[in-house]
Design goal:
The chain is of the alpha/beta class and about 375 residues long. The protein has helices spanning about 5-10, 20-25, 45-55, 70-80, 90-100, 115-125, 145-150, 170-180, 240-250, 255-265, 270-295, 310-325, 350-365, and strands spanning about 35, 85-90, 110, 130-135, 155-160, 185-190, 215-220, 235, 295, 305-310, 325-330, 330, 340-345. It has two domains: about 5-45 and about 270-365, Alpha-Beta Complex (Aspartate Aminotransferase, domain 1), CATH 3.90.1150; about 45-265, 3-Layer(aba) Sandwich (Aspartate Aminotransferase, domain 2). The strands form three sheets. It has a seven-stranded mixed sheet with strand order 2-8-7-6-5-3-4, with helices on both faces. A four-stranded antiparallel sheet has the order 9-10-13-12, with helices on one face. Strands 1-11 form a two-stranded parallel ribbon. It is globular. It binds pyridoxal-5'-phosphate.
Amino acid sequence: MITIPEFVQNLVPYKAGKSIDELAREKGLTKIVKLASNENPLGPSPKSMGAMSSYINESHRYADPLCHNLVQHLSQINNLAPEMIFAASGSDAILQYIIMTCSNEGDELLTSEGSFIGWYVNSDKLGRKSVKVPLTKDYKYDLDSISKAITDKTKIIYLANPNNPTGTIFSSKELESFFETVPSNVLVVLDEAYTMYVDNDLDFPNGLNYLRENLIVTRTFSKSYGLAGLRVGYAFGHPELIKSMFKVKLSFEPTSLSQVAAIAAISDDEFIRETIELNKRSLSMLRDKLDSLEIKYTDSAANFLMMIFESEEQARKFTIECLNRGLILRHVDTFGIPEGVRINSGTDEETEFAVEVIEQVWELIN
Ligand SMILES: Cc1ncc(COP(=O)(O)O)c(C=O)c1O
């Protein structure tokens, strides 16, 4: 009999939110709204759909391993040398490649509790040691404490800005002070999956303005561009690091159709504008309802917010009762916040449904 290594046996697999089909099957519900995975409620960028239809008869060809065209487009719009750009099947895959490229089994990776579960899963599955610093009381990254936790063993520091599942951000000044404390042999990963949702009025650092040898910035086409199912992520970093990551990447990802879709999405300004407007409208409706019910929530700059309950039990009950009524939310206990339930923005109709269900369930459980 084969033996599965102990660290694999002990892995807690990534648990995605319930799918609409799954819930419909289980509960026999006819109306189901899923606001659990921070997806774009408007669907995929229309330009991407057009580009994929035109390209579909080229699907017998392997994808370009170096993602040349996609990298060129990203280089132009970000005004950055192509050698500093990497692309793979989602930023989740990129996080894995960063860990594989820059650390060895047993090395320490430092981050925050209450942050993106994908980072934790990738660290654990590659047998790295995760060191996690608690969030502040208002659910923000505690950059000072993360600095203090750096040791000789620290190889990589992961920061998500905005953070998932809280949506909270740190400012340019906070990031600058943080960088001063990080030794040059420690790589900082700045995960900017939700950067396009952040309001221009906020003091929010664009990672591209801070590029240095020991920084890599990751982004994704999954959220604002609406391409989560196609799996395209990208990253900006030092050319040596990017070159090494291409050695580690599975050759033919992202798929050729996904690369074509991503290129088209980049120029879909109208879609991005609508996405951002809808997000603001939906979150504002949600916040109004939560305020009126006196349910606490985080100060989020992304396309979701995290409701804060009095206990894990209350958060779980709330999530289950919403589910029973066709509203899929995400209890974020596995992210390390047992009292948190995340909800993302929806279409106007989805948001109206969500606020109705939230009100009903809140009355029921109180
Ligand atoms: C902070 C953060 N980083 C990365 C990802 C992964 O995105 P992708 O779909 O590009 O793998 C997510 C997805 O939820 C996320 O929230």
